[in-house]
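Friendly challenge for the regulars: who can give me the C-alpha cells for this chain first? No prize, just bragging rights.
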Amino acid sequence: MAGLKEIRTRINSIASTQKITSAMKMVSAAKFHKAQDTFFRFKQYSNKVDEVLQQVASTAHDPSVSKWFKKQKNTRNIALVVLSSNSSMCAGFNQNLAKKIVEDGAKTLGSAWGTDGLTIFGLGKKGADILSKKGISINLTDSEITISPNFDDTASFCEQHILTPFNDGTYDAVYIAYNEFRNPAVQVPTIIQYLPYKLPEGIEKSSNESDNFVFEPNREDILKVIIPMALKTSFYELILENSIGEHGARMTAMHQATENAIELSKQLKLQYNKARQAAITKEILEIVSGAEALRG
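First reply, four minutes later:
Bragging rights claimed.
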C-alpha cells in the first residue's frame, strides 16, 4: 500500500487536474453555444441559396456552366479537403476522421487514391498531422481558417484552391472529409462529394423548365455568379459544422475527464483514510505492546 504522503500528493494532483478540466469544459461550452448559434443562423441562409441553385441548375445548358453538375467519366485527378481541429483534447474527433479516410479512401476516391492524382488539403493541423504519420502526403495545410471561421477567408480559400482549379480542369472531382454534427457527444466522420455538385433526385436539366425563369441581364452571367456563390456558401457551412463538432467533442471529453477525476479522487481519499487508520492502529498496538513489556 502506498504511503500517506504519496497518496496526499496524488489527491492534490488530481484536484488540480480537475480544476483545469472543469475550466476547459466551461470554455468549450461557451464556444460551442456561440458556434452552434452561428451555424444554425447561417444554415437558414445556406438552405435558401441551395434551393435557388437547385432551381436554376435545370437551366444550365452551356458547357461552361453545366460542368459544375456533370460528372466526369474518368476521375483521375481528385482533391480531398480534410476538416479537423488545430488543438487536441477533443477525444476521437480527429482520429476517427483520419481512420475513416484511411479505411474508405480507396473505395470513395477510386483509382486516384494513393497516387499523384490525389491532392489533399488539410484545414486544421491535427487531422493533417495524423494522416502524415499514417504515410499519407498532405499537399497544403492551413491552420488559420478553422481557428475562427469567417466567410471571407473561407470563400477566398474555396475560390483559389477548389473552384478555380476545378473550373480549369485541374480536378475532375472534389471531396470533403469532415465530422457531421449530430449532438455534442456524437460526430460522425463523413466523406462527401463536393464537386461536381450532386442534384437531388427528380431535378433534371430540361429546356422546358428553363422557360419558367426570367434572367436579367442574361442567363449565362447570372448563373456564373450564382453557382460559385452557392458553392462557397455550402463550403462555409461545412466549416461551421466542423467547428461546433470540435467544441462539442472537447466539451464532452472535458466533462468525462472531470467526472473521472472526481471518481478517482473519491477512491484515493478512501485509500488514504484506510492507510491512516492502519497507521493509527499500528501505533496503538506498538504502545500497548510496549506497556505490556514494561509490566512484564
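DSSP finds seven helices and five strands in the chain. The chain has two domains: 4-20+257-295, 21-253. Your move, everyone else.
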